Fold:
Amino acid sequence: MSGLSAGLVRCFDRLNAAAAWLARWAVLLMLAIGIWNVIGRYVGSAIGLNLSSNGLIEAQWYLFDLIFLLGLGWTLQKGGHVRVDVLQSRWSTRRRNRQELNGILLLLLPFAFGVMAISIDPALRSWSIGEMSPDPGGLPRTWVKSLVPIGFLLLGLQGIAEALRLRWALRNPNATTQVDETNQNGGATL
Structure:
């Protein structure tokens, strides 16, 4: 792989790995808040105090959004997205790589960058009006609306990285096995 392509692949892989690291910690925080909400509801009911809030409930939703949206690109990097394995298992490695590349170029990238483009305006509008939750004690909606374009940008960038890997594999058929192995091991660069 050329220096520029390899550098882009490494950069996009690292960016999505960093987003996944943040998403992993958000899972723990979301679980802790969820446990507190359950315990707080029952203990609060028993002692006559409200130990939960709409803000805490919305925090769980927002953290789930963060986990899902920031994990999209990393999941692609790890090969965790849905594929039609029934067909692909019968194909040669070259044909599988060609189909994967076509799927990325014709489906994934237009979808990811399309959703990103469509979601930028609502996110900016949310920031301009300082959008808040309609529920009493709720959280600002600005941050969660900003996650949509960010998440799909990360997915699109990882799609570019995967397309560059596949293009390199198709041009270097003797190294195709190496590409398959690196993809299985977390998208290491070539």
